[in-house]
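Q: I have 176 residues here and want to know how they pack in 3D. Can you give me a structure?
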Amino acid sequence: MQICRIFFLTLCCMSFAATVYAEQSCTSASIPASTPDSQFIDNNDGTITDSKTGLMWKKCLEGASGDSCEEGLVGYFTWQAALQQIETVNTGGGFAGHSDWRFPNIRELISIVEEQCYEPSINLNRFPNTPISYAWSSSPDSNNEARAWLVYFGYGNSAPVERSNKCTVRLVRGGQ
């Protein structure tokens, strides 16, 4: 079963050529919000601070911009190209006055999954126009150095995949 799930995630991540947006579904009557609006502070500079973790997130995925992340095109990067993108952001003047942006580790990335919602499984009030996508983490797969962990924001699940796949990147700063 695990092999099938990883194979499915690998195929989806590799072949995810178009950005897909869907009508988010939430089951607020039976599942409490795991990332309520009150947990996040909009810094009005393209960043969101999580008051629970102390992490500062870029509101938009790399490639998107604007107050509602409606401008530009969400980028899809191999893991190595994502590292280069982070370096480009940090050495090119940074973002929102900060030049210490990085990949989130898998625990940090999972911390913004909204468990009561799917397609996408994220708080769209704080992270608007997030497509149903896979997002890289900095966490390597301890069983295979050619893979790294990602989160699928369609349903909020995670798995390691080959670093040669192309996935989205949401940058973070602060924390450990």
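Q: Anything worth noting?
A: The mean pLDDT is 90. Helices lie at 2-15, 79-91, 106-110.
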